[in-house]
TrEMBL record:
<protein>
    <recommendedName>
        <fullName>SAM-dependent methyltransferase</fullName>
    </recommendedName>
</protein>
<dbReference type="GO" id="GO:0008171">
    <property type="term" value="F:O-methyltransferase activity"/>
</dbReference>
<dbReference type="GO" id="GO:0032259">
    <property type="term" value="P:methylation"/>
</dbReference>
<dbReference type="InterPro" id="IPR029063">
    <property type="entry name" value="SAM-dependent_MTases_sf"/>
</dbReference>
<dbReference type="Pfam" id="PF01596">
    <property type="entry name" value="Methyltransf_3"/>
</dbReference>
<keyword id="KW-0949">S-adenosyl-L-methionine</keyword>
<dbReference type="InterPro" id="IPR002935">
    <property type="entry name" value="SAM_O-MeTrfase"/>
</dbReference>
<keyword id="KW-0808">Transferase</keyword>
<keyword id="KW-0489">Methyltransferase</keyword>
Amino acid sequence: MSLKAHIAPLRWSVWRLATGARNITKTGQIGDGREAAAVAYVLENARAGDIDDVLATIDKFSYEKSLLINIGDEKGLLLDAAVRRADPALALELGTYCGYGALRIARAAPTAKVYSVELAEANAVNARRIWAHAGVADRVTCVVGTIGDGGRTLDALATEHGFDTGTLDFVFIDHDKKLYLADLQRILKRGWLHPGSIVVADNVKLPGAPTYRAYMRRQQGALWNTIEHKTHLEYQTLAPDLVLESEYLGPG
Ligand SMILES: C[S@@+](CC[C@H](N)C(=O)[O-])C[C@H]1O[C@@H](n2cnc3c(N)ncnc32)[C@H](O)[C@@H]1O
């Protein structure tokens, strides 16, 4: 039986996810300990130093134990392809959670430095343990903070991690859906992107980032060139979702 066949859309961990939506925006976790359980599961079951096995083990946990809000295996293929297209030396993710998305980026770009900004310290701790187990801790870094915290996190990326004009090749936006556009614009203001940089945004249909989608539509062929990928919400095949892949064309 395929892993996908194991997913029962109405299983308890999915309902718990719905009631945990409030927690997610405040604490970055569902509130029932599933993220810590996922780390323990990975450390116990995945081969150390084997990125493929760590990712597959996280997917297995999500299908068979508790649903995690990673980008997941189906949409992860879109993320992988966009990363390969950008061929980044420097990549940034917004929203780390358990470290799954950053690990996919690191696998698709084997020499890239990957930074992930996360508001919840507890998620940073979990993700670092997973990255260490996968053997990528030397080039995948979690920065605790937010892009909208008055410049503190953006300044830290610049002064401590070498973000500079035209150096940022790839961005994966997957944090607070209401902040997608504002945070992208804050990054744009720093001048870190260059023509050809790729920005991927998850969950544009569900839970939805309508302002971001409308902006990309308005800017089509001007500042950005966007492909809308029709796909499904993570770890199931019933609920549709959209992943946007946008190439930065520059201010022209
Ligand atoms: C959907 S999860 C990210 C999943 C991850 N990208 C992956 O694919 O494995 C969203 C994460 O964004 C974090 N988050 C929410 N608002 C944020 C913000 N303003 N800045 C940074 N992180 C934020 C949450 O704590 C949570 O860990």
